[in-house]
Amino acid sequence: MPQSQPHTPPAFVLPFYGYAALSLLVALGLLWWSVPNLDGHYFQPKILGIVHLMALGWGSMMILGASHQLLPVLLGKTLYSNKLAMSSFVLAAIGIPMLVMRFMQFQFDGLALTGAGFIILAIVAFFINVIKNMQQQPRRAVHVWFILAATIWLLLTMLLGWLLLYNFSHPILPNSSLHYLSLHAHIGLSGWFLLLIMGVGSRLIPMFLISQINDNKTLWYIFILMNASLLAFTCIFLCGVSRIFIAIPFTGILTSMILFARYVRHAYQQRVRYSIDAPMKLSLVSVLLILLPSLLLAAVLLLQTTASTDVMTTLVKLYGFLLFFGWLSTLIIGMTFKTLPFIVWSQHYSKAATTHQQINPADLVQHRTVKNMMLLYATGLVLFAISLAAQTMWLLHMAAAILLLAGVVYTWLVFQLIAHQPAK
Amino acid sequence: MHAITTNRPDYCAKAVEKLYSVLDPEMGVSVVDLGLIEQIDIDVAAEKIYCRMTLTTAFCPLGDAITNRVQQALEDTFPGFTADVTLDFDSHWTPDRISEAGKTILDR
């Protein structure tokens, strides 16, 4: 037998994908159900539940699954512990519904704290796997440092979240929990999602485009700028310095995003493969989609002292929607149909050297259905954003229904792939 | 075109001909056209084939599948021989190694 390449067995990765797909479906269902409540303030039970289901059940579970698969590829070493990977899944799978359900009931009690505790333990398990895996390989690619730093930011986000929950019933922090929401949300969004997506994307995008870009210097600049900006943001927030200084970390993070977009453009220009499939196109478009919420955030920062409460509430809701359902979801949906077929294919066909010679990962995907699902999702996304801005309720209902339909098709496609069996 | 080193050009030609049918599962281009095969040495007396190859990306997730296919193709070409396929990432793969035929497929 030829020497084996380091990889994580699919049985330890696929549960993350399945769970994430179901979470998206439930979140879209809840969004549709919550439309009548969307004209109020953003800090309300349903929005709180949906946001956490999207951030943890959908985004984080999918990214954790993909990271468990990608770590051996980045380090050239088999994952330190498959048991830790499974523990990470089980703990998060138990904790997320506990937390989300209590949020939906607006109860910040022991059950919510226990749920959040399970999720923290899940992240700790992943963190140990990353650290131990890194110790096995002295030659560490820059991408691995992104994963490590992002995991630390996620841990900090979750620990702060747990403290905020506790602070609701037993005040221990100098201010109310609402005061810290912005810090909790932004170290999670930028420190975990953005940093990790940049690190993983800078490896996956050139790999799928067959691009020979080797610009580690830019990636290191992005890494340092992102972390320095996040540290600066945390310090400004906690030290009570005037909010005007938040423009400094905001500019740092925006510069990182521009550098990353430039890196992706170079990878695209230097690609060997000319034709690009729909999932890859969607992933590339999502890199640009981050600009929309960034512009909205800039507007929020600029208008916070002059705009009316109604305008600010709408801007913040639009910002949150475009981040989770726009940028993050389109990226994950695109990458699902690039990474999942590989995982399923390697499970069934990589050892069968001759029998299934003609079956390739792309053959497992129903391309036309995937493309139609993506178009449906994009239509729902645009309509929802417009109707949220205009506060047109009938259009919001319709847009949410379209998004839900796209979610049903997406989940069906994911489970079809997971359940795939070779023809006899 | 990327040159393959060998100790037995006669056997190697037959092996390479067969390896044109081993496609990269992601790109649909043969391992020969991609320039992944570095060296094919044959020990006729011991009935052994030693194949050294690389991948477009180090630790590519499809690495096992590709090396399994190469091993199977070589053993099918020379019945009774065992093939030993090793991966070598010391010499980095670059797109310059792709043959004109391979580029034509990728340009589609």
How would you characterize the overall build of this protein?
With 424 residues, chain A is mainly alpha-helical. Helix content of chain A is 76%, strand content 0%. Chain A has 13 helices and no strands. Chain A has helices at residues 14-33, 45-75, 82-104, 110-136, 142-169, 177-209, 216-238, 247-269, 278-289, 291-303, 309-348, 367-390, 393-418. Chain A starts with 13 loop residues before the first helix and ends in a 6-residue tail after the last helix. With 108 residues, chain B is α/β, with parallel strands linked by helices. Chain B has a single domain (5-101), classed as Fe-S cluster assembly (FSCA) (GMP Synthetase, Chain A, domain 3, 2-Layer Sandwich), CATH 3.30.300. Helix content of chain B is 31%, strand content 19%. Chain B has three helices and four strands, in the order E-H-E-E-H-E-H. Chain B has helices spanning 9-19, 63-77, 100-107; strands at 5-6, 37-43, 48-53, 82-87. A four-stranded mixed sheet of chain B has the order 1-2-3-4, covered by helices on one side. In chain B, strand 1 (5-6), helix 1 and strand 2 (37-43) form a beta-alpha-beta unit. In chain B, helix 1 packs across helix 2 (63-77). In chain B, 44% of the residues are buried. Classes of the chains: A mainly alpha (424), B alpha/beta (108). Chain A binds chain B through residues 1-7, 69, 72-76, 207-208, 210, 212, 272-275, 342, 345-346, 349-351, 353-354, 357, 360-362, and chain B through 21, 23, 25-28, 56-65, 67-73, 76, 84-87, 94-95, 98, 103, 106-108.
